[in-house]
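Title: Request for sanity check on Protease HtpX prediction

Description:
We are preparing a figure and want to confirm that the structure record we downloaded matches what your pipeline produces today. Could someone re-run it with the sequence below and paste the raw structure tokens into this thread? We only need the token string, no images.
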Amino acid sequence: MTGTAAVPGPHGGRPRPGTPPPPSATATRFALLAVTVVAASTMLHAGTLFMVEEALGRSRQAQQTACADTLRSTAAGATETSDAAVLTRDFEGCVHGIAASVVLRTAALVLLTCAVALVLYLGHARRARTGPALGLDRLAADPRRTEAVDAVRQVLAEEAAPASVTVVFAPLQPGRTGRCVGFPGRYRIVLSLALAVHHAHHPHLLPGVLRHELAHVRNRDIGITQLTIALWWAFLATVALPALLASLLLGPLDIRYAVAETAVALLLLWFERAAVLRARELLADAAVQHPDYPQVLRTAAALPTATGNATVEGTLRKGVTGTARTRALSRLRRWFSYHPDWALREHRVTHPTSLLVPSLFEAGRRESWSASATSRCRRSWTRCGRRARGCNPG
């Protein structure tokens, strides 16, 4: 479960305004993503496997013909008293064995996709934990950064952060951002070094970003985030790319259907991925529950995204004035973005109830993919069964 517990409304209704959404919001969206990956992988792997078998001369029709030839040769050498029911049962078993083999091989390919995602998940967390970073003690040795380190330690004490959480600053991390990586029991919050540089002019910015990352730890959505990214890349590498190559190299002359099928799968999976990543950010914002946090979002939107210390400090000499500079994203572009814009984040801090449940569009995608995968398996099995029943041995 992810998210933070919300105060229930009267008579078991929705939580009161100003409280974080319930803990199931991100987890439910991730469940939709997992269903989409499994269903799309089953569908595309089955198509790829069919085209490979056709190219190797082992099409399912040829295998069923071989079953019929074996039956005829057996029936030709049998005596008149041979049991015809036994021959029919043997033929049905041969054809059903072909269908079972297709199902098992497709399932093995889906498990391969899941295994690749698991490897990517473990590698992503390890790589992020071993990147170049400055610890608090090392950063405190610089007199210009003492106040920033003190602010970090104060927030850790106020939020009662567990001892398993380590906070470091990354010189190469762009902008005014932070991220949290790791495994349960060992989390690492990586903050941009630019936040320490900004601290002298905007003392509320660094504590606000740190509170946001600590909210991710409390929401327990870090593993879900890493798994979401891993599933996306595993799907691209083991499902979408082989399906496209098989369609272009091994498919029939009219490959438009196969290519369109892969493109639709990628599009829907991108939407699912974006929904998970956007929801976790908005849920963490809602879980901060600090009066200065809306100002933190406005300041972060207004500040430049420079990475180098010299560039950042040079910009800060001029100061940051005016209102927050938010990105004017169109609705279509917002759908494709996997990170919510600053204006939306600021709005959802005070209006979090829209994240209570996935939208009907998200739920419809899950049902459509589940029905598609189930119907494909059912058609494959019943087609073989009809051919088996339609054969008259002898």
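Thanks, this matches our download. Residues 84-129 form the longest helix (46 residues).
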